[in-house]
Amino acid sequence: MNKIYVGIDNGVSGSITFLTDSTVNYYKTPVKNCMNYTKKIKWLNRIDTKRLRQIFLDYLFDQNLEVKPCLCLIERPMINPARFQASMSAIRALEATLIVLEELDIPYMYIDAKEWQKMFLPKGIKGASKVKKATKEVIKRMYPFIKENDVDSVLIAEYGRRKNL
Questions:
Q1: Which of 31, 42, 105, 125 meets the CB 3.0–4.6 Å disulfide criterion with 36?
Q2: Which pLDDT does position 158 carry in this prediction?
Q3: Got the DSSP string for 25-66?
């Protein structure tokens, strides 16, 4: 049986890709909009763990509810004190994702963005917007049927497949 590589671009604006030698299945990370936990009225997005769990069950489990051969590669979250709100969102998203993976006994490992980007992107690309643009161009060539803007999870999964992790 083909091993399934799961690329997870961590965060509420991230994505998940299930990749085998013959299939690519891409999802935006399922989220729900909830009232913030602070005293000010504010809303925030959180991972919808019920939907996330179902996505993993649909792709990673056989009819006997056994986990198929797989490995999830999770992009390590950005933690930057100067970007406190974004860092907190990344940490909350990671924790929700880890809870689902651990409850389902799905193997996972962390990967730094620079590690998978080094395999696919030309040297010298600097800045988040330029990296995003280059990533999208690489995906257009490799998987032209994927039309999404945020495609990091595809390359994360492809990195795992090429490295045979």
A1: 42
A2: 94
A3: EEEEPPEEEEE-SSSS--EEEEE-HHHHHHHHHHHHB-TTSP
